[in-house]
Design a protein that fits this description.
The chain is α+β, with helices and mostly antiparallel strands and 208 residues long. It has six helices and eight strands. It has an eight-stranded mixed beta sheet with strand order 1-2-3-4-5-6-8-7, sandwiched between helices.
Length: 208
């Protein structure tokens, strides 16, 4: 069977780039995303200290000190960790993962928000900021997102963004309880970004 090439006129992609996020701050209205530092651990631990935040995450830090170590060691493990603030107060975290400059690919993941922010404009605002940075500043051609197949809330949020479902990676990653999850993969590619961007803008507060 011969499969049809979905992009038969594909051309060489421009060079992507990467630089540490230490000095980067992304802002829209009351929401700011900036690089996580160890001193954020106490506040971040407090706002995420709810079972629902960690239900689908591999490991839950037992103390703020453990979380501080996670932040300190994150870059070395390929995780570029942000904290999310609203009106100057920490309300969650997200990360850049699987950065491949050669392939012009990046992943947004390890995203958790305080329960008080669930169902608000926060996730749309964060994805708008992070994708704008990935496509516009870094020159990426693909942003991928993935989640536990059991995480209905996360799957619904990703689909509302306009990301495309790409399939299920079976027995992909161990959960905290020792079971091995199936992972659902989504993506937004550069060709999708203009329409995804417009959809996100329509769902986030206007800044006068």
């Amino acid at each position: 069977m011969v499969l049809e090439d979905p992009r038969p006129n594909d051309t060489p992609w421009r060079d992507a780039r990467w630089a540490p996020i230490d000095a980067v701050a992304l802002q829209h209205g009351a929401v700011t995303i900036r690089a996580a530092v160890e001193s954020d651990a106490t506040d971040l631990f407090s706002v995420l200290d709810h079972d629902g935040c960690w239900r689908h995450v591999v490991s839950r830090p037992a103390t703020p000190q453990v979380l501080a170590s996670v932040i300190k060691e994150s870059t070395g493990s390929g995780r570029h960790m942000w904290v999310v603030e609203r009106n100057g107060a920490i309300v969650g975290t997200t990360s850049f993962l699987d950065v491949s400059v050669n392939d012009a690919r990046i992943e947004i993941g390890s995203t958790m928000y305080a329960p008080s922010e669930w169902g608000t404009d926060l996730n749309s605002t964060c994805k708008y900021l992070l994708m704008s940075y990935a496509f516009g500043e870094l020159g990426m051609g693909r942003v991928q997102l993935k989640t536990d197949i059991r995480n209905a809330r996360s799957r619904n949020a990703i689909e509302r963004l306009g990301a495309r479902f790409e399939g299920v990676l079976r027995r992909y990653q161990r959960r905290a309880d020792g079971t091995v999850r199936d992972t659902v993969m989504y993506s937004v590619i550069a060709e999708d970004w203009p329409s995804v961007r417009e959809g996100l803008i329509a769902r986030i507060p206007r800044v006068e």
